[in-house]
Records
---
Amino acid sequence: MIPAAFDYIVPDSLEAAAASLAEAGDNAKVMAGGHSLLPMMKLRLAQPGVVIDLKRLDSLRRIQVDGGTLRIGALVTHHQVETSSEVNENCALLAKVAGSIGDPQVRNRGTIGGSVVHADPAADWPAALLAAGAEVTLTSSGGSRSVAAADFFLGPLTSAIEANEILTGVSVPVAAAGTRATYRKVKQKASGFAIVGIAVCLRTDGDTCTDIGIGITGLAGTPFRATAVEDQLRGTALSADNITAAAAGVADGVDALDDIHASGEFRAHLARLNTARAIQDALGS
Ligand SMILES: Cc1cc2nc3c(=O)[nH]c(=O)nc-3n(C[C@H](O)[C@H](O)[C@H](O)COP(=O)(O)OP(=O)(O)OC[C@H]3O[C@@H](n4cnc5c(N)ncnc54)[C@H](O)[C@@H]3O)c2cc1C
């Protein structure tokens, strides 16, 4: 349980962090709260020769509203998201998801950026970021680029970030007036990670669904947006029958995860049931 030897760098600026990362290449790991990285190093599943600790980069701890966009810095903790007035007023879904993560210690130490880059298939953030149409910003010594959440998660513990990039923040469109949203999770009892987690954002005109985003985590190795369910509901009345019928297809064609926590068949069942319930919950919110 002791990590392999490594060099430890604590840069004072984003530019210095990016330069250190460019120099060390694949041999380096960036550290945020260390909540996933340090256990991986202790188990020797990760053996970076260099750890670049971002803790002095206060510019990555900000939450701000910039026109129609809510921007959350990579080092913002889950607790800060949960309790932020900017988040609660502009995209309450994110606050709800943050409050469902782990326990108080995890929420006070774990960061949105670390969780997103770690890309655990049972993590909560991906569902919310997919449903809300988020983008992440990735910065290297060569510049910055934005990647839609829908293109970022590529597989278990695998994302579109390159070895020389630092995730600097997450952006979501400010929720339009009348948006209703919720997050529903069946969780592992010990850790709080999702066996399945379903985030829903929707708008209606009367009973008719005018827009809907559904993000699913836990069900498959890669979190995904349930576009077939969304397409079936957009433009229709959100009656109980229509919701149940659309949600019944959420696991179609999905290679459901099968592990010690739940069989693939049970996960698919939970996803169908809880997608319908999440849409109903959002309607009642
Ligand atoms: C007991 C326990 C319970 C948990 N329960 C839940 C839960 O219920 N739901 C849930 O979603 N999560 C849960 N987590 C995970 C937690 O939410 C952390 O956010 C997650 O472990 C990432 O930790 P971190 O932010 O400290 O990042 P770190 O551990 O520091 O880093 C994680 C990975 O991301 C990389 N990285 C970190 N920041 C950046 C960056 N800005 N740019 C580029 N790469 C970066 C690191 O190199 C590393 O590969 C739990 C964790 C623990 C320990």
Note: Residues 189 and 248 are 26 Å apart (CA to CA).
---
Amino acid sequence: MFFSGAISAKRAGIKLSAIKAMYKEGIRAITDDGCALMNEDLLKQALKLSKKLNIPLLEHCEDPHLSAGGVLNKGKVSARLKLPSAPREAEIFIVLRDILAAAALRAPLHIQHASCRESIELLRCAKKSGICVTAEVCPHHFTLTDEDAASLDTNFKMNPPLREKKDITAIKKGLKDGTIDTIASDHAPHLKSAKKKSFIKAPFGIIGLETMLALVISELVLKKIISKKRMVELLCLNPSILLGLKSKGSLMPGMDADICIIDPLKKISVPHKFVSKSSNSPFIGKKLSGWPVLTIVGGKVVYKR
Ligand SMILES: [Zn+2]
């Protein structure tokens, strides 16, 4: 297991945390995930340090002044339901600001859970210009839209929020052409009692880990948007490169024996019961193909279906 360290002390966004000390203890990245660094001077200090230590700065891109109180993507659905909404600019603004800062400092920036078409376009331009930026997307952002959240089932409430069809199209293009480097689950378990609250009061987040592979296979590989080789790059190889995990991410001789054996055609409905203690997933009951049947970690079988 590997850890990220907080960028700012108590994730308060005021001063840097003890990053060097945490680095000595083995952190592989720094992030204040859940919040963006709004203090630009602190962002620059953190980027300089991430460059010096050669670990990426992972940014949750959301300007809280713009997203304030929003529980859905700002658009037709939020207007129809009369719910407070977060405009896409809340994400785009921070993506742009961070890319400019990373370019000026030549520091390693990683954009977490990109969800907007404009973010993907900015990333594509930045990469073409040789800026040191990488990015991830989450399965729920390339499979669901804010129309799905109109049911007001709180398992469709996450941050960044579900966007629109044009965003799904852009994310899939980015996955295909290399603009996006990795797919991440943004796994966020919550108690049933917490998710039973109203859409406004319930916490953001869903569990993404157990459905991630089947969503990637069903929605991307079997629909021929990406190849199996590209899937392995996005889920295994690129994350290990990003985090500097030299013995992970491939099956070459000398690497750790971490192996997942997949049945690509096994088709089942996502069950109500997860291995995780939580079950806050919007995919329960959805028929998906491509499930792990055997998982080996460090040469030991840890899961067998
Ligand atoms: Zn986040």
Note: The longest helix spans residues 89-105.
